[in-house]
Amino acid sequence: MAELEPRPEPDEVRALARLVTDTTGAVVATTRAVHRAIADRVWPDAGQPAKAMHDAISTVVYASIDAGTTTAGVVAEHGLRITGATRRLRPWTGTASGRYLAGFVNGAFGDRLLLRHPVLATPMRIRAGGRDVPLNPERLAATYPDATSYVVVFLHGLVETEQWWGTTFAAGLEADLGCTSVQVRYNTGRHISDNGRQLADLVGELVEAWPVDVERIAIVGHSMGGLVARSAVHQAAGEPWLDLVAHVVCLGSPHDGSVVERGANVLAWALRGIGQTAPLGALLDSRSAGIKDLRYGYLDERDWLGIDPDELLTDRRGPYRRAPDRFDGYAGLEPAGEGVPLTLQRVPEPKRAKNRLHLDLLVPDVDAEVARLERLGARTLETHTGYGTRWSVLADPEGNEFCVAAD
Fold first, then answer.
1. The domain 121-315: what is its CATH number?
2. For residue 385, what are the β-bridge partners?
3. pLDDT one-digit tens code per residue, 248-302
4. CA 137 – CA 288 distance, rounded (Å)
5. CB of 220 within 8 A of CB of 251?
6. pTM of whole model > 0.85?
7. 258: helix, strand or coil
8. How far is CA 217 from CA 35, 64, 178, 292, 343, in A?
């Protein structure tokens, strides 16, 4: 399908001009602050003639640069509006290089784009053939004429767009599994939990408007996309579409956090501690909320809400996360880092004595593990098959029952 793009919004090109002006201004401000800090160290006495002359000259130079940058931005913006050039230009995402640039800009500071240049901030949407696909039955049917009941949703990673997947990956999956692939583009600079909540809503709307009844869903996420997928599933507890999810596939996702982001956190902290490099630390700290969430893999807004995002190497994840119900009457508790996942089952009987704790041990080889436990004194009571797995019910020497199931 040929890549077709609508004309840009009237303010898109002008917003790009303002973005370049703002970025240039930030670089100049950082350079001025570092320059001033170094000068204060060289000339600690404010009354020295050399320092007074230096400060006067540098003030004039930086003020001139600021004025020139601001003037150039205003002239460019008004010139674009007066000449109507935006009506003749393609949108900045209308070319492959433009889409790469959009992905990078949104990933680097997409949270601030929403506030200062919202027309440049990428909204979460479905993409096909280089165009947005509205979530209504008519457009979905036209875009996916061979839609199947098995939908696979693809989520790109940080500073990427849907074009990262190429064309062969999804096509191969469709040929092998008989599924229909759906590509999602989103602003990777936003908090992972914000994107997760929006993805949960989007998948719900997609299922409602899909041309045929959806029977099965898989979500495939690369890098940050895997965390967004987990966050969506985490926040969609109780939503009807969640029962259709068969797989969440995470490719290279930093579930326990990114070493690179933790390194950036340490570097920014160290730079802020030295007067001459403090402005560089502040500039490094301006990276997006989405990038900072990767430090420890934050999936829930409670992990970051009300917390200093630049505090040094502090893991604020809750001890456990409630996983959505996979089967009626069950709830899962997954450790945020290392630990043992627990599954809780609602039982109809009232409590009569001590609270019961039933363990399900997930192992790669059920037969080998059962044989090992029997040698230690356990007894096999029953063996079952169902729910796509196999398990054995055993009892320890005191009669306490537990299960060994295939992982």
1. 3.40.50
2. 390
3. 999 999 998 999 999 999 999 999 999 889 999 999 999 999 999 999 999 999 8
4. 35
5. yes
6. no
7. coil
8. 56, 58, 12, 29, 23
Q: Where are the domains of the chain?
A: 12-91, 121-315, 359-407
Write the DSSP string, 351-382: P-SSPP--EEEEES-HHHHHHHHHHTT-EEEE
**SS3 state at 220:** strand
Distance CA 371, CA 382 (A): 14
Q: Are 378 and 395 in contact (CB under 8 A)?
A: yes
Architecture of domain 359-407: Roll (3.10)
CB atoms within 10 A of CB 384: 12
CA distances from 382 to 299, 379, 390, 393 (A): 39, 9, 11, 5
Of the candidates 326, 323, 337, the one whose C-alpha atom is nearest the C-alpha of residue 295 is 337
Q: What is the pLDDT of residues 35-60, one digit of tens each?
A: 888 888 888 876 778 878 888 888 88
- DSSP letter for each residue of 47-115: T-HHHHHHHHHHHHHHHHHHHHHHHHHHHHHHHHHHHTGGGTSPPTTSSHHHHHHHHHHHHHHHHHHHH
Residue owning tokens 């356990």:
378
3-state class of 335 per DSSP?
A: strand
Average pLDDT over residues 69-96: 63
Fold: same for 121-315 and 359-407:
no
